[in-house]
Amino acid sequence: MVIALKNILDIAESKNMAIAAFNATSLEGIMAVIEAAQEEDTPVILQFANAAHGKYVPLDTIGRVMVMLAEEAKVPVCVHLDHGDNFDEIKKALDIGFSSIMYDGSALSFKENVANTIYAKVLADQYAAGVEAELGAMGAEGAEDNIMGAYTDPELAKIFVEETGIDALAASFGTVHGIYKSEPKLDFERIEKIRELTGVPVVMHGGSGISDGDFRKCIDRGVRKINFYTYAAKFAGDAIRQMAADTSGNLYSHDIFVQARQSMKQTYKDAIKIFKNR
Ligand code: 13P
User: Fold this and answer.
1) 223-228 and 100-103 as β-strands: parallel, antiparallel, unpaired?
2) Residue 150: its pLDDT value, please?
3) Ligand 1 pocket, residue 205 CB under 6 Å
4) How many Cβ atoms sit within 10 Å of the Cβ of residue 95?
């Protein structure tokens, strides 16, 4: 069944856990996410980052499949647009039936970010969908660490949340998207402060490469949504490489897809177990 962002994060809050938010880029990826969540009997956020992954599959196509399979799922699934940076894309996702959107105005001035996030919320409200927005900026893909990005200022975050009325805040506290070049050093106190001052769940981006212990520390301080994708894609790639090495004769694409799905499902199940924080 499809569930809105606020409702799924309320579940996380009541259990002091984080909801896994996995990016889908293919049918296999969508199925891996839903199967993993069902096998772990845990709600999940199924998300698509059109800005990054629209080149692999259009939002129009994958979005419809995401909603259809989420509706049929045996666990609550929030269907979310990740890093929405324009209103056409946001409207399209909402029209398709997404129950949540992220407006990412992190590259804009504070004032523009607030104004655009308010407009994104007006749009989402028309569909009773949730809104995540970002303040501060995560380092670029593969950045050395987060010095490239601006850490989220807790006092500013308070004003941002008050003015926009968002359901969840993506905050910058030391994570980066993609593969880490050096061990991530997270600012746990900052998470605590942001959570305390804003009163809304904190979203971690760049989950791949964070240690189990650090995940738990973040969850205990108010992280309720963890975005995670790169490791699932990388491990699936490793599994396919191994499969190709072990295969003599024809290597069929349908077998590759099944291998990818199985590998991604296992990675997602392992992540969900950690995010349960038991
Ligand atoms: P990783 O791909 O680094 O796990 O991060 C995913 C993410 O933050 C999507 O918004």
Assistant:
1) unpaired
2) 85
3) yes
4) 11
Find the helix packing angle between 27-39 and 59-72, rounded to 10°. Answer: 20
CA distances from 64 to 3, 60, 71, 98 (A): 16, 6, 11, 9
CA of 7 to the centre of ligand 1 (A): 22
Is the minimum distance from the CB of 53 to ligand 1 under 6 angstroms? Answer: no
Helix 87-96 to helix 110-125 angle (10° resolution) is 20
Q: Which of 41, 82, 125, 214 is catalytic?
A: 82
- Residue 139 is predicted with a pLDDT of 61
Does 212 qualify as catalytic in the annotation?
Answer: no
What is the pTM for the complete model shown?
0.96
Using CA of residue 155, residue 159, residue 165, residue 169, what is the dihedral sign?
negative
Please say if the pLDDT value at position 148 is more than 50.
no
Q: CA 255, CA 244: separation in Å to the nearest integer?
A: 10
Ligand 1 centre and the CA of 166: distance in Å? 21
Mean pLDDT within 75-104: 98
